[in-house]
Amino acid sequence: MNHCITQGRRGFADGLRGARRRSRGGRPIPCVRKFPMSSSDHIHVPDGLAESYSRSGGEEGRAWIAGLPALVARCVDRWELKRDGGVRSGEASLVVPVLRADGTRAALKLQMPREETTAALIGLRAWGGDGMVRLLDHDEESSTMLLERLDGSRTLASVEDDDEAMGVLAGLLNRLHSVPAPPGLRGLGEIAGAMVEEVPSAVDSLADPEDRSRLRGWASAVAELVGEPGDRVLHWDLHYENVLAAEREPWLAIDPEPLVGDPGFDLWPALDTGWERIEATGDARRVVRRRFDLLTEALELDRGRAAGWTLARLLQNTLWDIEDGLTAIAPSQIAVAEALAKP
């Protein structure tokens, strides 16, 4: 697969892209210690994180995991921090609650240095805490971030009213998209163009002729948009699990994977988030359509372009699935496409 499709992420990174592709599987997994911790304690790396790096990163990933406790200790000493609770982890990062010297609650986020961690730092600095978790400090060499502490136990998924939750997402997206694009981020035009170029060699991997036709159709729609890719800073993965309760504001976004492009490319995670809950309604297409209507109205987006860039996300997801050995388009992807096709 062309490197541009995944912002140049290959090998180890390929195994960690599931959270963005599914948009609903990224909630941190608690790993709570049963006794008080000090900066001298040897940190326990959650099994799931260690297995993820070992499986997808090979020797490089295992070496990073082995050095993680020492890295935490160095960062704690460097920034004069005190450990303050059990660690949490997702598929790719470790989050360590800490207290700063002045008593301020913060969190260390440690992730193996990659292109996406560099992009995240660029984005966090550009947003400056506007709708986004605030970056307090960072270590360029290790990509370690010191972030403001949010409530990791309460995500936007806890809001039962879907329209209310979509309103929160729309408000955050509007703020994130309003920031001028900083230098150093990849552009959507390059990524989308690479996807379109990949389709002829990938499409025959799909077993169903209808799926092959869908993929070609999505690629054609994206090809029409590539010449005007947009110039906004995008989050790329803003869904319910990537919005946490906060103290300075009710809700803030986390875990950005920034790139520069059209805001329509940022809608799919919001359309797809909480898919099990969507399916439980018995009419997934209606829910997706309502979400699309709410988001495009709130963000004042051109509906046709927003639909086209959402098809780009479906195209990207399916190309990833094909690379992973799947031979059919996921039903959820088809449902989203059909919802957008309704007049």
TrEMBL record:
Keywords attached to this entry: Transferase
Keyword check for Ribonucleoprotein: no
Protein name: Streptomycin 6-phosphotransferase StrA, APH(6)
Domain of life of the source: Bacteria
Enzyme class: transferase
Matching SUPFAM superfamilies: Protein kinase-like (PK-like) (SSF56112)
Matches recorded under NCBIfam families: APH_6 (NF012171)
Membrane-crossing residue ranges in chain numbering: none
EC number: 2.7.1.72
GO process annotations (BP): secondary metabolic process
GO molecular function, one term: aminoglycoside 6-kinase activity
Organism in which the protein naturally occurs: Streptomyces griseus subsp. griseus
InterPro entries per UniProt: Kinase-like_dom_sf (IPR011009), NH2Glyco/OHUrea_AB-resist_kin (IPR006748)
